[in-house]
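From the methods appendix. Each design record in this collection lists the tokenized structure first, followed by the designed amino acid sequence. Records were kept in a plain field format so they could be parsed without special tools. The example shown here is representative of the layout used throughout.

RECORD:
FOLD TOKENS (173 positions):
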């Protein structure tokens, strides 16, 4: 797969199919990007499991923090990686040991590792690199336009409303 660009339909398909997310590198610090992405995903109805060995057993936004992917209490649909690119191969090793395998490995902005991505894809896992699910969800739902950001998505379709305060769902093309 070409990981330089992603079709909006591909990202929408992923975001619409994912319900549970393991966030590797989640931080309890409310000024860290992982904190507000975790908060955003929770507000959109995703079930998010923070992974951070330094905070295992504690809570972030009411969610128990786990030390590793192996410690998760249930299978997840997506693993969201908030770690340096150099940490990705080890995380993908952990992902490939999960049973069942997640549907998606998502690497945050600035995170990319082509060899690890190829290993995950060879196992049938979709991979997204150098993207943020919060930004992509906001772009595809139209919410990002509320702040004046040009999402690049024009539609005359009525937004698909989800539960929650001003919560749009991602609409497929």
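DESIGN:
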């Amino acid at each position: 797969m070409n990981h330089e660009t992603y079709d909006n339909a591909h990202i929408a398909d992923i975001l619409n199919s994912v319900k549970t997310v393991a966030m590797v590198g989640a931080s309890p610090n409310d000024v860290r990007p992982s904190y507000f992405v975790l908060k955003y995903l929770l507000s959109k109805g995703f079930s998010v499991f923070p992974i951070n060995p330094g905070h295992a057993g504690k809570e972030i936004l009411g969610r128990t923090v786990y030390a590793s992917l192996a410690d998760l209490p249930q299978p997840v649909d997506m693993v969201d990686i908030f770690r340096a690119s150099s940490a990705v191969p080890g995380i993908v090793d952990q992902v490939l040991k999960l049973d069942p395998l997640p549907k998606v490995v998502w690497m945050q902005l600035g995170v990319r590792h082509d060899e690890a991505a190829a290993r995950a894809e060879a196992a049938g896992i979709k991979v997204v690199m150098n993207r943020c699910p919060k930004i992509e969800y906001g772009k595809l739902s139209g919410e990002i336009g509320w702040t004046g950001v040009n999402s690049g998505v024009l539609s005359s379709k009525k937004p698909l409303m989800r539960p929650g305060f001003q919560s749009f769902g991602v609409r497929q093309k």
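APPENDIX NOTE: The chain has a mean pLDDT of 90.
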